[in-house]
Specification:
Chain lengths: ~300, ~525
């Protein structure tokens, strides 16, 4: 969909740039100044959460930008809080994001393979319909989803409201349309001759798909997996509608619950500790897969 | 192949994996066949289970649909035909069931009055009204009562169940549909009423008191046309109803007060207009009533216009501010003379590496009036969430922080793809840096990131999470708890449907459908011009 070039968000190593000769700094010092200002804007909330999480007094009134002390009391309180099963939330978030991302990547890859490699009636119309459908985010149909799943819960309890499987299913509704265009574009760049050679050798379509195509498109699969993992991990609206039981909630819903009501000031230290721990999986993914995610960004996934 | 315009594989395409020469023997291995049939069998067993549950609960129509799906699964995977469908079917079923159906269902709900007090069919609702009118017959024996919700349902809003123990010691579950015997051996009775029942969460005195209003409107219809009502929270009695439904004339007559009720506006109202309507109404088609309400109801109409205006402004300003800051930073750091650019870049995108729910909640705490960091650092005393414009600024500032790294990343990418020789040529021609920015860099940049700006607008237009986590839609004007100053349309719909004291699914769906149309109008030009359409091959 996009025509943007893949940006390079990793540290720049342009070959054409020589070591700056002495004296250049005099001309660009103001750029350093502005960059540092921007940097302060970018990181002060992060510094603040870290300070609040490590603050021995875990209330909001005692919080400050820079750390005033060092204590892990907030983390201990959080993990032992009987009213807030933080570890369960963490597990739910990881399980739901992992399974939803795995399934949706696989479903997307299957569809993209067909749309890229096979010619059949309804192919063009199908691709268009998928593109059109993407204009309408699933969350707009939340009333229909909510009522449908409260009925499903009556019929097949493990897939109803307040279940991990239920919310995973909701996220999988858009699995096919969400990434098929991005995936198909990449599948198209894998030479067809490889398939044809395998076909001549008597390999079945399934064998070609699983042993040749999927291996050659691994980079885009990683990108799609990561973006959907990040998306599901941070999804709030549907999770907050579907998961009302403390034990079924995800980090997003659980942490939100800690910041509403009168207890939020006293719970602030625990909340900051929880926020810090919740940020770890995604931040780690970004550091490790910076390049793939940056590539995925320009292809139409927006945060 | 000859019609395939996709670029020839370049260096970016990985190679080396999967050597086609390996397929000398084209036979499918036995384990793959076995796995395939096991999966087919599992899918069919699942279909069978669902069909069984459906028929147990009386949804006969849906059994047919499940059987149809099972047949398609068998036809697609059990035969060698329909190869593309083998890959598309799982995604297709999920899409039809969980994306298209909810949209259609939301659309249908928008034309109904579905919501609190209008949840059941007319038959069921009338049965409840009649059951509610029961008066205790002299001498009837009381039941022991425990009020409960199903396990896992919220105590404050879950559907109520009566766990009843009759004088002979037999146990029953009663709901709005009727009585069913409760024979589970795990049921324990203490001093005449049930104290434990597997699958149910029994409400204690306080919880039950909180729901006294629901309890007053709750009665279990019995087979002989009477009903069981609560009397306090540990006793219930069976009695005869005073209401009689004349189905032919479609009226209800109260045999005691001689009041006649007629069906009007999906509930029973007194014919002479005097007195209260009966408590339970039913679900019915109301045509365009919900849409009319949105545009004519005095509070909703002004609220809707206000919310819509802010919604547009929020999305546009979010895109504008994040794009400008991101672009300026990208331009700033696109200078090879700056040392440590890599470090700057890595740190600048840090906000993007943190889940939005975490950042939004942290910003919410930083904007706290008394103890928040923003007021502390600036020595201001702004009530950020109590004042309309302060709250809106807070929302935009937070979204700027959340969104500028994205714009920074895409602008950096676009800048690096501008060919050096174009810039060199301009420089030789004597163009000033400002002129180069205006005439070369900006046009090329906008072409590259234009579609992303539109996508970002569409995303922010429905940025439910940010608003809900940061302000909850507030501040609210006094006397109007439905429309908040920072509400987006989607937040308004959410509150109407889920969060309010009396959910109105019909009205919420109507708002959602209106958002659908707005989103369609916004994205249609982009869709029509989309290059992807022309290139489908």
């Amino acid at each position: 969909m996009s025509t943007a070039a893949v940006p390079d968000a990793t540290p720049e190593r342009s070959p054409g740039v020589q070591q700056d000769p002495a004296g250049t700094f005099g001309k660009v010092w103001w750029k350093h100044l502005l960059a540092i200002l921007a940097l302060l804007f970018a990181i002060f909330p992060i510094v603040f959460v870290i300070s609040a999480a490590l603050n021995p007094a875990g209330t909001m009134s005692a919080s400050s930008l820079l750390p005033r002390g060092f204590s892990l009391a907030n983390f201990r309180d959080l993990l032992q809080d009987p009213a807030r099963p933080f570890l369960t939330w963490y597990k739910n978030s990881l399980v739901i994001s992992l399974l939803a991302a795995l399934f949706s990547t696989f479903i997307g890859a299957c569809s993209a393979y067909v749309f890229s490699r096979m010619r059949f009636r309804g192919r063009r119309a199908g691709l268009m319909a998928l593109l059109l459908l993407q204009m309408f985010p699933a969350l707009l149909a939340f009333v229909g989803l909510y009522i449908t799943f409260s009925k499903i819960g009556e019929i097949v309890p493990p897939f109803g409201l307040n279940t991990s499987w239920g919310i995973i299913l909701v996220y999988l509704g858009g699995a096919m349309g969400g990434s098929v265009w991005l995936l198909k574009g990449y599948f198209d760049t894998v030479p067809k001759e490889l398939d044809e050679a395998a076909l001549v050798d008597g390999a079945s379509h399934a064998r070609i798909f699983f042993t040749i195509t999927l291996r050659l498109v691994t980079p885009i699969l990683v990108t799609v997996f990561m973006t959907s993992f990040v998306g599901v991990f941070g999804e709030f609206m549907l999770a907050s509608i579907f998961l009302t039981n403390a034990d079924a909630q995800t980090l997003a819903v659980g942490l939100y619950g800690m910041t509403v009501g009168n207890t939020k000031f006293a719970l602030f230290g625990e909340f900051a500790a929880g926020a810090l721990l919740s940020a770890i999986p995604i931040a780690a993914l970004y550091l490790v897969f910076q390049k793939q995610l940056a590539g995925g960004l320009t292809q139409g996934s927006v945060k | 192949m000859s019609t395939d315009p996709s670029p020839e594989p370049t260096g970016t395409t990985p190679s080396g994996a999967g050597n086609p020469m390996l397929f000398h023997h084209g036979k499918t291995p036995a384990w793959a066949l076995a796995a395939k049939w096991i999966l087919i069998a599992l899918a069919l067993v699942l279909c069978g289970y669902i069909a069984m549950r459906l028929s147990d609960l009386g949804y006969t129509m849906w059994v047919v649909l499940v059987a149809f799906v099972a047949m398609i699964i068998l036809a697609v995977y059990g035969t060698k035909r329909a190869v593309p469908m083998k890959y598309l079917l799982p995604g297709l079923i999920l899409m039809l069931g969980l994306q298209i159906w909810p949209i259609v269902y939301t659309g249908a709900t928008a034309f109904s009055n579905y919501g609190q007090g209008h949840l059941a069919t007319k038959e069921e609702a009338t049965a409840q009204d009649i059951a509610y009118s029961v008066q205790q017959v002299a001498g009837s024996k009381p039941y022991g009562l425990a009020v409960a919700v199903k396990d896992g349902e919220p105590v404050a809003t879950g559907e109520l169940y009566f766990l009843l123990t009759d004088p002979a010691g037999k146990n029953f579950v009663g709901d709005a549909k009727g009585l069913t015997p409760l024979t589970d051996p795990g049921v324990k009775v203490e001093s005449g009423s049930i104290s434990t029942a597997p699958g149910y969460r029994i409400l204690n005195l306080r919880e039950a008191n909180r729901r006294s209003k629901d309890l007053a409107n709750f009665a279990v219809p019995t087979a002989n046309g009477g009903g069981i009502k609560a009397s306090g929270i540990s006793l219930a009695f069976e009695g005869r109803p005073t209401l009689v439904w004349d189905k032919k004339a479609d009226t209800i007559t109260d045999s005691q007060t001689k009041q006649v009720y007629v069906a009007r506006g999906a509930r029973w109202v007194p014919k002479d207009g005097q007195g209260q309507p009966l408590p339970v109404g039913w679900k019915e088609n109301v045509g365009f009533q919900n849409f009319k309400t949105v545009f004519t109801d005095p509070t909703l109409r002004t609220g809707f216009v206000k919310v819509f205006g802010w919604n547009l402004a929020f999305a546009a300003l979010s895109v504008l501010t994040t794009f400008i800051l991101g672009m300026l930073l990208a331009l700033l750091l696109n200078d090879p003379r700056i040392k440590g650019r890599g470090l700057y870049r890595s740190l600048l995108i840090l906000p993007y590496a943190i889940p939005v729910f975490v950042s939004a909640l942290v910003w919410q705490s930083m904007f706290n009036q008394e103890f928040g960091l923003v007021n502390n650092l600036t020595h201001l005393n702004v009530d950020w969430f109590g004042n309309t414009w302060a709250a809106r600024s807070a929302v935009l500032l937070t979204n700027l922080w959340l969104g500028f790294p994205y714009m920074f990343i895409v602008c950096t990418g676009a800048l690096q793809s501008i060919p050096d020789d174009v810039m060199e040529a301009a420089r030789i021609d004597g163009a000033s840096p400002l002129r180069m920015l205006r005439s070369i860099i900006m046009p090329l940049l906008l072409v590259a990131v234009g579609p992303l700006l539109i996508a970002s607008f569409a995303f922010n237009f429905n940025n439910f999470g940010l608003i809900q986590l940061l302000t909850g839609g507030g501040p609210f004007n006094t006397g109007n708890a439905q429309i908040g100053s920072t509400d987006l349309l989607i937040n308004m719909a959410y509150r109407l449907a889920i969060n309010g004291t009396s959910p109105n699914y019909g009205l919420a769906s109507a708002v959602a459908i209106i958002i659908f149309f707005i989103v369609a109008v916004i994205s249609l030009p982009g869709f029509l011009r989309s290059k992807a359409l022309e290139e489908v091959n």
